């Protein structure tokens, strides 16, 4: 492999890993907040017999943020669905090619989510959430942000698979 390409890949991968650590911290904080809000909601509703009006809305938005932000971390770690049967029966080069095709298709889907999610968030800015009284563009924005983060994580993954498929020293 070309030393300049290795340096470039290392730089991109380091950036993606640092971004992933930040995202995982945010997801962890959101999980803690989600747990606290749901616990408070249950406590107030069933023990004190008085509901917190905004708690269900906050819990919903926190859950959505955990899913869409956590998606990029899961993709980074390789914790996603894959075509394992097809890849187990292929040699290393074809496995890398299959993975590249899968990752490229996911990238296309994520770019579509970024574009249309952004449009939906802008359009939703005309509405106000009933419980929190914030513009709905705030919770809607998590979809394009999460899709963008997955796209960032896909770049070093695709570069690595490209390198394995076409620049591997072993001829398989």
Strand content: under 5%
Judged by helices, strands and strand pairing, the structural class is mainly alpha
Total number of strands = 0
Which descriptor suits the 3D outline?
elongated
Taking pLDDT < 50 over at least 5 consecutive residues as the criterion, the unreliable ranges are: none
Report the helical percentage: over 70%
| Sheet having the most strands | none
Order of helices and strands: HHHHHH
End-to-end Cα distance = 16 Å
> Averaged pLDDT, please?
90
Number of DSSP helices?
Answer: 6
Radius of gyration: 21 Å
Topology, element by element:
Blueprint: H1 3-47, H2 55-77, H3 84-88, H4 92-124, H5 137-140, H6 142-166
Q: What are the key terms here?
A:
172 residues, mainly alpha, 6 helices, elongated
How is this structure best summarized?
The chain is an all-alpha fold and about 170 residues long. It has helices at about 5-45, 55-75, 85-90, 90-125, 135-140, 140-165. Helix 1 packs antiparallel against helix 6, helix 2 (about 55-75) runs parallel beside helix 6 (about 140-165) and helix 4 (about 90-125) runs antiparallel to helix 6 (about 140-165).
């Amino acid at each position: 492999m070309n030393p300049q390409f290795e340096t470039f890949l290392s730089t991109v991968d380091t950036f993606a890993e640092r971004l992933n650590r930040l995202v995982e911290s945010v997801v962890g904080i959101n999980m803690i907040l989600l747990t606290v809000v749901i616990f408070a909601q249950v406590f107030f509703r069933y023990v004190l017999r008085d509901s917190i009006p905004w708690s269900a809305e906050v819990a919903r938005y926190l859950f959505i943020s955990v899913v869409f932000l956590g998606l990029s971390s899961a993709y980074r770690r390789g914790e996603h669905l894959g075509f394992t049967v097809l890849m187990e029966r292929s040699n290393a080069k074809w496995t890398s090619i299959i993975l590249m095709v899968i990752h490229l298709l996911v990238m296309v889907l994520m770019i579509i989510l970024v574009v249309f999610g952004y449009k939906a968030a802008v359009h939703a800015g005309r509405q106000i959430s009933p419980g929190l009284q914030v513009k709905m563009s705030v919770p809607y924005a998590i979809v394009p942000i999460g899709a963008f983060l997955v796209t960032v994580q896909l770049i070093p993954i695709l570069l690595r698979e490209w390198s394995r498929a076409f620049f591997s020293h072993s001829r398989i």
